[in-house]
Amino acid sequence: MRSLLEKVPEDVAFLVRRLREKGKRGWIVGGCVRDLLRGKTPKDWDVATDARPNEVKRFFPRVIETGIAHGTVTVLVDHRPYEVTTLRGEGAYSDGRRPDKVEFVDDIVADLARRDFTFNAIALDPIDGHVIDPFDGKGDLDRGLLRAVGDPRERFAEDGLRVLRAARFSATLDVAIDEATLQAMSSDSAHDTFKKVSAERVRDEWVKSMTAGKPSIAFDTMRKTGLLGITCPELIESVGCTQNRYHSFDVWGHAMACLDAAEPDAVLRMSALFHDVGKPRSRAFSDKTNDFTFYDHERIGAEMADPILQRLRFSNEERQTIVALVRHHLICYSADWTDAAVRRWLRRVSPGLAPLLYKLGRADVRGKGRPVDDELANIDELEERATKLVADGTALSTRDLAIKGHDVMKELGIKPGPVVGRLLDRLLELVIDDPSRNERDTLIAEAKQILSEAEGSKP
Ligand code: ATP
Ligand code: MG
Q1: Does residue 91 surpass a pLDDT of 70?
Q2: pLDDT tens, 147-167?
Q3: Of 301, 228, 220, 292, which Cα lies nearest the Cα of 259?
Q4: What's the CA dihedral at 389, 393, 396, 400 to 10 degrees?
Q5: Is the CB of 137 under 6 A from ligand 1?
Q6: Residue ID of nearest Cα to ligand 1 atom 4
Q7: What pLDDT score does 454 carry?
Q8: Which residue's CA lies nearest to atom 16 of ligand 1?
Q9: pLDDT mean over 411-415
Q10: What pLDDT score was predicted for residue 53?
């Protein structure tokens, strides 16, 4: 136990010592004890106490009433915050989200019994190192097993978030789910309660799942238990959707492998999860190749991902980035592309998105389940060439042109209107083909030429 206590900060020991001086008890509980037992350093420390919130407020000079109705206050020790929660028993849940009333108790075991999984239901006394582990959470951790506290069916029927937490922990802790717990997650009563969970909380669990070494464990758990079909039936279309002869996996299996191969960044991994979501709806058999084709799947996928991400309440910025990544994930680069072709690609995807596209592209090829060194080298080459062109300051948007809209209007004697924007777009195309033309006099001459051709072609 000595090594467990070594990681407990002095602040926490101080806090619990002070509670003891006042005739009360304090334990560290929940995720931080679980993480200590796994040899990890917890990011935050939760303290449970038999002192009532008003008592805690009296015992410490700086206390913030964070959730006093639920028995939680934040105690500041040298400006550092610690959540201190009065021991609670289990009230009834009628809304599937929170207990009807908070019932304070004096018994740490009763408090542990209301917690979700055995490894989250362990208390540690930070002064003497005594561990209270009534449901053998430590044994389950050692066995690599996630198990509900108590009757899993009841526990999932009373709080809809727990099934999703189970899926998340299965990935972040890389543990198997106990059979009875897994069956209960798949039950109608668990699903009914899960449907009441707000989209924001589902999103938060998804995002936390994305920090796992292999997020596919969470998403496969959600799929197998029927939870994914409730949140996102569109993804279920990929299950069993076989691809062409170049792919070892069905679309779902490939999305999972791609997800695991992507760097642990939520936006990148969400785009990996959704990059081929349009494939099932674009799948067609080609007699010519004697195989399936997925023409336009990236456009269809982007159109599908957009409302899904709105539904899940991702921010506009995150949604737009993920949708753009899905839209442009197919990188058809080959070494025979001219510099102008690389510039046109950069312009189309936008230079800001390109670094994420290389990462998604690499995850995509790594997720194919076959040797892909040549395809990775291909992306490396595109990245190298595109990065150099961007660093050279090459014009990739009309803002980078040597003339602006007002120059065009003044020199050509035209009024503001859409024609100005169209002219600038045409000039940009010329400059992308040949950057040496990005020079004021040349562009004005080109603009005059384009305008006179356009007028000449009018009936
Ligand atoms: P992490 O902080 O890494 O997400 P955690 O287990 O600490 O994991 P928190 O949301 O911080 O999760 O919750 C702290 C503790 O509260 C949990 O360990 C668990 O004991 C309990 N808990 C949290 N959510 C629930 C729930 N929905 N049902 C029952 N107990 C819960
Ligand atoms: Mg926590």
Answers
A1: no
A2: 999 999 999 999 999 999 999
A3: 220
A4: -170
A5: no
A6: 31
A7: 81
A8: 30
A9: 91
A10: 95
- For ligand 1, atom 18: residue with the closest CA: 30
Helix or strand or coil: residue 160? coil
- Residue pair 37/57 in contact (Cβ under 8 Å)? The answer is no
Joined tokens for residue 414: 């035209």
Say how many Å lie between the CA of residue 120 and the centre of ligand 1: 7
Distance between CA 177 and CA 260 in Å, rounded? 20
> Residue 459 pLDDT > 70, yes or no?
no
CB 172 within 8 A of CB 208: yes
Pick from 37, 116, 133, 202 the residue to mutate for probing ligand 1's pocket: most ligand atoms within 8 Å of its CB: 116
Lowest-pLDDT range, 102-116, 310-324, 372-386, 421-435? 102-116
- Each residue of 280-298: pLDDT tens digit? 999 999 898 888 899 999 9
Q: Across the chain, what does the average pLDDT equal?
A: 94
Ligand minimally distant from the alpha carbon of residue 44: 2
Residue 292 contacts residue 285 (beta carbons within 8 Å): yes
Cβ(67) to ligand 1 under 6 A?
Answer: no
Q: Which residue's alpha carbon is nearest to atom 9 within ligand 1?
A: 31
Predicted confidence at residue 16, as pLDDT, reads 97
Q: How far is CA 257 from CA 116, 167, 231, 248, 250, in A?
A: 29, 17, 21, 11, 11
Look at ligand 1, atom 5, and give the residue with the nearest C-alpha.
31
31 CB near ligand 1 (under 6 Å): yes
What is the rounded average pLDDT of the residues 297-322?
98
Q: Are 328 and 298 in contact (CB under 8 A)?
A: yes
Distance 35 CA to ligand 2 centre (A): 10
Burial of 253 (0-12, 13-18, 19+ CB in 10 A): buried
Is 92's pLDDT higher than 80?
Answer: no
Task: Tell me how far the alpha carbon of residue 338 lies from the centroid of ligand 2, in angstroms.
Answer: 52
Ligand 1 atom at minimum distance from 161 CA: 27
What residue's CA is closest to ligand 1, atom 6? 31
Q: What is the pLDDT of residue 88?
A: 92
**Rounded distance between C-alpha atoms, residue 399 and residue 67, angstroms:** 51
43-65: pLDDT as tens digits: 899 999 999 999 999 999 999 99
120 lines ligand 1 (CB under 6 A): yes
Distance CA 272, CA 294 (A): 17
Place of tokens 């039950």: 187
